[in-house]
Amino acid sequence: MKYARLGNSGLIVSKLAFGAMTFGTGNLPSVYKVGQSAARQLVDEALAAGINFFDTADGYADGQSEEMLGQLLGSRRQEVVIATKGGFRAGPALVQSGLSRKHLFAAAEASLKRLGTDYIDLYIVHKTDPFTPLEETLEALNDLVRQGKVRYIGFSNWPAWLAAKAVQIQRERGWATFISGQMYYSLVGRDVEYDILPFMKDAGVGLTVWSPLAGGFLSGKYSRSNLQDPDGRLSGFDIIPFDKEWGFAVLDHVHSIADAHGVTAAQVSLAWLLSKAGVSSVLVGASKMSQLEDNLKAIDLELTAEEMLLLDQTTQPRPLYPNWFADSMLDAEHMKALG
């Protein structure tokens, strides 16, 4: 296993993290489908491979994921970093959702109980909340840290402008500062490269990646004819928008590189991400031991410069304004003099 500091903090996490979203049962059978026995095997395998970073959320299978993960880590809790998330609806009442002080306090307490621990290493706000003042959310997170219930804080699925505003407020007021942002990033989804990654690098915020295989699409197990296979996640949980036909063209290159190395498409897709500057850790989830074992091998795969260039050029995102204007107006003499 390889390790990295999470952002500008002293928290050291494995470059591959274990995502426990599949643990439990519920209304998304294509996602929530791992029982206690299989989950134990997966967690044991992750620990044996050197993974020390485990991710879950209160919204996964109505809290079952947290309960199962906490029980399975058991006596090894002090050896690992547990990240969980709050902000999604946790009950029928209006106040049981969002990033208000009331809900975040209640959600954090409920997560602590389900995880069977007295502190959360990394507490992540799972989404934005336009109905709650940003300062209220940030002060509540700071108070959770000051109370000792949370060690570090992060955000997930926030736009760059909002995350940047939040970090500025946190620094000005001496509040606990975000050390990580958990964002979607993959070969077929490179939107974070526009603004979020540059912001994170500048602010010292570490990027942790969810769905690095685009919901399983980049695992290579899908074809044009089996996208709706009831046993596959995409049949019931296809939330990531991208042109599937273009995606299959990308996969052609991925398979070609995989064949050259004698590895799988998933390993190539993960290795590409792991090589990207600013990526602290990549979450890998699994419902089968074979999936986890395959994903773990990506840590040792080194793609050549030519292979990286091919994948970069094949999936290059379309320039957006004002990015393209700023790039086109770079001073040629400065570039020549300063590199």
From TrEMBL:
Keyword flag Oxidoreductase: yes
Superkingdom classification of source: Bacteria
Gene Ontology CC entries for this record: cytosol
Keyword vocabulary terms for this entry: Oxidoreductase
Transmembrane portions of the chain: none
Keyword Aminoacyl-tRNA synthetase: no
PANTHER family according to UniProt: NADH-SPECIFIC METHYLGLYOXAL REDUCTASE-RELATED, OXIDOREDUCTASE
Source species: Paenibacillus rhizosphaerae
The name this protein goes by in its record: Aldo/keto reductase
MF annotations from Gene Ontology: oxidoreductase activity
InterPro entries in alphabetical order: AKR, AKR_Detox_Biosynth, NAD(P)_OxRdtase_dom_sf, NADP_OxRdtase_dom
Pfam families per record: Aldo_ket_red
Domain NADP-dependent oxidoreductase: 15-313
